[in-house]
Structure formats: structure tokens, C-alpha cells
Write a structure and sequence with these properties.
The complex is a heterodimer of chains A (115) and B (111). Chain A has 115 residues and is mainly beta. Chain A is 0% helix and 48% strand. Chain A contains no helices and 11 strands. Chain A has strands at 4-7, 10-13, 19-25, 31-37, 44-51, 54-57, 64-66, 76-78, 87-94, 105-106, 110-114. In chain A, the strands form 2 sheets. In chain A, strands 2, 4, 5, 6, 9, 10 and 11 form a 7-stranded mixed beta sheet that branches. In chain A, strands 1-3-8-7 form a 4-stranded antiparallel beta sheet, with no helix packed on it. Chain A starts with a strand and ends with a strand. Chain B is globular. Classes of the chains: A mainly beta (115), B mainly beta (111).
């Protein structure tokens, strides 16, 4: 019962470096999301996907990119890392009907520090 | 005004106490409401959905007041293990891209 798996759990990047945060779910959920959580703030949506091949921007997409080639995988790419991207990143998924009555299943998060 | 507002706390209560959290939301078109629990340095986990008629799950009771645009969570007989941050979540409709998370209310239950 893996649910949503995120890797890595921790990462330190230097300014200007790039990296990919991996996210995989085994629940056959159509909807997948990437959020970031900063101290004292609610989760902010970066990107989301409603199915393989379909992605769209959320509230804070600048500096990030995503792809969704399969139902299971939804990687998040950081290009040219900046200190403002220091945060905790959560991947989540939900059934095709979205959050109504089901809510999300979250991965365990990636703690990213950009120095 | 924030779309979803919560008192950040912290609420410090003794074991066995009853504690209540409120959350207000600004968009009257909101359709779905949830409470999530987030332990320190962990991911959020769904605690319960909130229905218009109010609903209960063991020691937890959630209520929705659409007219005043707030939801509440009541925890009875608090346990040490209830210590966590409680997130209020409001969705405008199906599809998580219309879901707004509150910043959370911290609860500490002490022996």
C-alpha cells in the first residue's frame, strides 16, 4: 500500500542548479498535484494534472515545470534554483472526481534548501 | 482578506479537555470542506470531510455554517496523540486546482 511516493526526502541545492522531484502513485488516480508549504503559510498549488498528457499551472508556477507522461508519474522540475524556492514540497493525488468527499493522498514531502 | 483563515494558535490544553477550532472562508461558492491533520514534519492527512448537516467521527465533530461561511472542528476528551496542526481546507468544486488550504491551527495536548 505505497500510495504516493516522493523522492528525494531532503536536498540541498546551490543557486542556479536544477533538479527533478519525483512523484509516483499506485492508486490509479487521475488527478495529481504539486504543492509547496512555507512556514506559517497554507499549501500553495504549483502545478496540477487531470490525466496523462494534461498539465496546468496553479497559483505559484514560476520557476517550475512538470510533465505527466503516465498516470502514475508526475515529476516536478526546478530550473535555476533560487533561495525563494526553499520550501517543503508535497505531491498529492486524488480520484477523478477530485477532492469532493475523497480528499487528497499526500506523499511524505521533499525538504529543499537552496543556498 | 485571506481565502481561508484560521487562528494559528497554539492551543495548549490538558488531556481530557474539549477544544474547538474555527475556520472562515471568503468564497460563498465553496462546495466542499475538509479538516486535515498534519504532524510535525509530516504530510497532511485527511481527518474528515465536513457536511452541511454536521458529522461526527468518534471524538471529532465537524460543523459547517454556510450562512456565516465558517466551519468548525470540536475535539472531545483530548489525547496526547491529538497534538498536531489542523488544516482547514475548502474546495470550490471538484478538481483539486480549486482547493484552498488554511495555514493551520496548532494544538498541544499536555499530560
Amino acid at each position: 500500500n505505497a500510495g504516493v511516493t516522493q523522492t528525494p526526502k531532503f536536498r540541498i541545492l546551490k543557486i542556479g542548479q536544477s533538479m527533478t522531484l519525483q512523484c509516483t502513485q499506485d492508486m490509479n488516480h487521475n488527478y495529481m498535484y504539486w504543492y509547496r508549504q512555507d512556514p506559517g503559510m497554507g499549501l500553495k498549488l504549483i502545478y496540477y494534472s487531470v490525466g496523462a498528457g494534461i498539465t496546468d499551472k496553479g497559483e505559484v508556477p514560476n520557476g517550475y515545470n512538470v510533465s505527466r507522461s503516465t498516470t502514475e508519474d508526475f515529476p516536478l522540475r526546478l530550473e535555476l534554483a533560487a533561495p525563494s524556492q526553499t520550501s517543503v514540497y508535497f505531491c498529492a493525488s486524488s480520484p477523478a472526481s477530485g477532492t469532493a468527499n475523497y480528499g487528497y493522498t499526500f506523499g511524505s514531502g521533499t525538504r529543499l534548501t537552496v543556498v | 482578506r485571506k481565502e481561508v483563515e484560521q487562528d494559528p494558535g497554539p492551543f495548549n490544553v490538558p488531556e481530557g479537555a474539549t477544544v474547538a477550532f474555527n475556520c472562515t472562508y471568503s468564497n460563498s461558492a465553496s462546495q466542499s470542506f475538509f479538516w486535515y491533520r498534519q504532524d510535525c514534519r509530516k504530510e497532511p492527512k485527511l481527518l474528515m470531510s465536513v457536511y452541511s448537516s454536521g458529522n461526527e467521527d468518534g471524538r471529532f465533530t465537524a460543523q459547517l455554517n454556510r450562512a456565516s461561511q465558517y466551519i468548525s472542528l470540536l475535539i472531545r476528551d483530548s489525547k496526547l496523540s491529538d497534538s498536531a496542526t489542523y488544516l482547514c481546507v475548502v474546495a470550490l468544486g471538484t478538481g483539486g486546482f480549486k482547493t484552498i488550504f488554511g495555514a493551520g491551527t496548532r494544538l498541544f495536548v499536555k499530560a
